[in-house]
Amino acid sequence: MGAALAAETGGLRISITNPQGAPVAGATVRISSPSSLVTKTATTEADGTVRVAGLDPATDYKVEVIAPGYSNFTATEVAVVSNQNPIVAYTLGAPAAAGAAAGATAGMQQVVVSGSRVARVDTTSATVGTILNLGVVESLPTGRNYQSYLQLVPGVKPSSGGNPSSKSGVNYSDIDGATGTSSDNVYILDGVDVTDPSTGTFGSNINSEIIQEQQILTGGIPAEYAGGSGLVSKVITKSGSNEFHGSVNYYFQNDSLVADSKNATASGFSTYDAAVTLGGPIIKDKLWFFGSYQKKNRDTDVLNEDTNQFMRAVNREDQLGFLKLTWQATENDRLVASFFNDPTETTGTTLPGTLNNRDQRRKQGGDNYNLSYTRDMGNLRLNAYAFRHIGEVSDFAASQEPRNTVAFFNRTSIPLAEVQLGGFGVDTVSERNRDEVGFNTEYFLETANAGTHTIKGGFLMSKNTYYEDAQYTGTGKAQYTSLAARHAGFTFDQIVAAPATGGWSNQPISAPDLSRVVAAINGAAAADRAAFNARLDANGNGSVSEAELRALQFTSNTGNPGGQINLYRSVETVASPYSVEATGKAAYLQDTWTKDKLTITAGLRAEEWKHDDSKGNQSAKFEWKVAPRLSVVYDPAGDGRSKVWAFLGRYYDPIRTNMSDFAGNLTGPVQEEQAFIGDRWVTYRTRGGEKTPDALFAPSTKTPFTDEFMLGYATNLGRDYTVSVAYTKRRTRDILEDYDLHLYSDPTNTPDMVGYAAPSSVFYLPYSYFGYSSAPNSNYVLGTLAGGKRDYQGVELSLTKAKRDNWQGAVSYTWNEAKGNTNSDSNADFQGDWIALDPRAPNAYGPQPGNIKHQFKGYGTYYFTNGFASGLELSAVFNWNSGLLYSRAQLVQRRYLPVMDDPYVFGNTLDSWITPGTVGSQTGPSYYTFDMRLKYSYKLAGSQKVEFFLDLFNVLDKQSGTAAQALAVGTGKYQFGQANAFVEPRRLYVGARYSF
Length: 996
Description:
Blueprint: E1 10-17, E2 28-32, E3 40-43, E4 49-55, E5 58-66, E6 73-80, E7 87-91, E8 108-109, E9 128-132, H1 134-137, H2 146-149, E10 172-173, E11 178-179, E12 186-189, E13 192-193, E14 211-219, E15 232-237, E16 245-254, E17 269-283, E18 287-303, E19 310-330, E20 333-341, E21 344-346, E22 360-377, E23 380-397, E24 404-407, H3 416-419, E25 420-421, E26 426-446, E27 452-472, E28 478-483, H4 492-495, H5 514-522, H6 526-536, H7 546-550, E29 565-574, E30 578-595, E31 598-612, E32 618-634, E33 642-652, H8 657-662, E34 670-677, E35 680-687, E36 695-697, E37 705-717, E38 721-733, E39 736-739, H9 741-744, E40 780-784, E41 790-804, E42 807-820, E43 846-847, E44 854-863, E45 872-881, E46 885-886, E47 889-892, E48 895-898, E49 904-906, E50 909-911, E51 922-923, E52 927-939, E53 945-953, E54 961-964, E55 979-982, E56 987-995
Parallel strand pairs: 1-7, 12-15, 24-28, 36-40
Antiparallel strand pairs: 1-4, 2-3, 2-5, 5-6, 7-8, 9-14, 10-11, 12-13, 14-15, 16-17, 16-56, 17-18, 18-19, 19-20, 19-21, 20-22, 21-22, 22-23, 23-26, 24-25, 26-27, 27-30, 28-29, 29-34, 30-31, 31-32, 32-33, 33-37, 34-35, 37-38, 38-41, 39-40, 41-42, 42-43, 42-44, 44-45, 45-52, 46-51, 47-48, 49-50, ...
């Protein structure tokens, strides 16, 4: 929630000396940039230094120094980065000779910052991150969006969807065994948090050409920022200038520019990306504008992964608009208003494993409004802002037939057409909206003998609203999971079994559900109960036991929409729209104290959250939690060229609106989960509604957190190179999960019950653990996962070459060790619903699935400046990783869960525990990608130029595997351990741009 950084600026600490090295007091320093409406003038103190703050991020600043008795000095193309204050030291030369032109430049730069963009080290900060500007990313072969740029950052893991994991960020979900998507990141655009409040992924898209600066922070994150367990991506957009500038570009690609696929029949496609930008003055030196419009379009032919036959053509169209007005009302007052939107429509999915009848179209995107006011009063800066985000992610089924997924045992070569019957099953309209207001301050205090203080503080209020209208499709408003006809006669005991080898392709009912089915049978109406007893009551005692239920055989296909064997269905009995809210407050206070070679930053961040259900009543309140953060930075030589640092801090991970939804749907849709018993359906669980809520927030639930400790060193090597090494250790605790208290807390449970914790069990959690005195009226409760933990340590080594002598680049190596006993990340997974998966259970702790132990990255650009090649740029990006860790898995209700042994007793509990050596025991294929870009710029009159781009991805056409099949039984196409995802074939991407 909310970064409270609506007016992000940077600064420079300037030191002026004479040729003998003595400080020059009283020198006038003027700092200006054509990219900023503000020009700053300051005077050096007795020690020859001056700090200039409140500078807009840009790479084209000019620093002018005038001192009596010395020649004037000018440095150009000085870079200013938001939230950084590097040392800039200049040595003035002797007075200009008589008759020299006024303003003649003399002297030389002494150390680390200049127009040649030599290397720099911020010796006041312990934050670990990467700074990118448009000049860097546009010289490299990357995707044209800010999410793709994240892949240039050390330690960031591969992601096809643009939400990558970093360091200890979760990189795996049990649902579909998905990797490459993290919900731990924070995405900030122009100082405002645009992270989706429901999914924790990015919530807005923008045209990459409007980016002035992008910072990606991966560790040592100060108190002014929310989040921290993942990365923080911070984008600052352009603001126009005193002259009109703009651009028009067009990029395209199609299947004729792609090499043949070695792993699948290639599908046809064509795509283009066109954009325009325009910025300039409305009133010079007072009011600027900058706008952009981008349209992306892609047509894709989707082939059936079983037959390689054409299934459908899918079109995706993105329209990205942006407008920003910057009004410098006075030298000290600035008002900024911006609007951006990203409506996107997709006619279907491009997954080759999704049949046409299971297809769905999507409508997503929304509008964003931001208003920010900033006032400077000497050493004090005040800022206030207001932000509104209106977003939508809606899906609509292509077929209105009821969904029917067919389950097979020991599936080896079953075609999709036999598994995916009926339509997608539901039409869903969802909105994720946010309103936020906040203010922040910055005060600089310079003392005579006690150093300097930069004090920052802020406060914000945020309201996040989740709206949903979901309606089942088809006659009867039901979704089925059926038993394949070939398995007619299988028993309930066989259905819920969890063998270490083999297993079900889909398992809609698990062993812990059996007690609910038994209770529903024995509590049924008299006529139904009599029918059930006649079929199941083997001992004639007038009730059905779990053992008797396990003996039930499934044989009926009566009424089944696909003619398969009735097993399970979910029936929507109420369809109604609803909304829930999560409102939060956050405050931070931070002081950065610098004296001589030492900088200490101490900060506190506090957050409070309240969740409201769909009736507007409070469903949970998480009281103020304070996250301390402390860093110590030491500059050994005091010259701004090297530093040693340490950081210790805590990051809280507030509960998102997806859990507000889970525990707050009292007036929305209601679904009844049913099992087919004999000749009729019986409802054993109701999901949603007020009578028996699906979930409640347990009163004792805590906010999840991650503690981080870091040690690091960085130094300049010569003028151009910076080398850094950082060690990180993290621990994540108080992880959120949903619990079935009937399994964990019922005092009537006995040790002989399979999958239940009796009071004598080590897994038993009394109602008091959750803050209750008796069983609450709900299917589940959201609580703190007992024993849940994730532990991480890693080392990051990087070497960066600043742009000089016609080239720039960077290389990095990252070692990651991630262990734990849970992948839960505010997603209400199966832990808490199945004791065999409990974090305290045997064999649950191990290497984290989704982790990548080793990563190596490198990129570089060479600029040709002489002869016939003048105007050419040649660049490359190389990424290698050692392969994703994964577990040997079984599929249960779309979850990839670790394979298990036959039931045995552990901790006085009978269950089918995880097989030893299963969790994170497998390593997927290692692979690399090598991409290149050739760019040619041709200058026209004035500032006009034409640029041509040629990107070649996967230059060597190495179509290596990137992931492996994790299911022990495999699928119809891939066996266990076989590569099932691959690097795309070599492909060209062509573009051109005119700018002025």
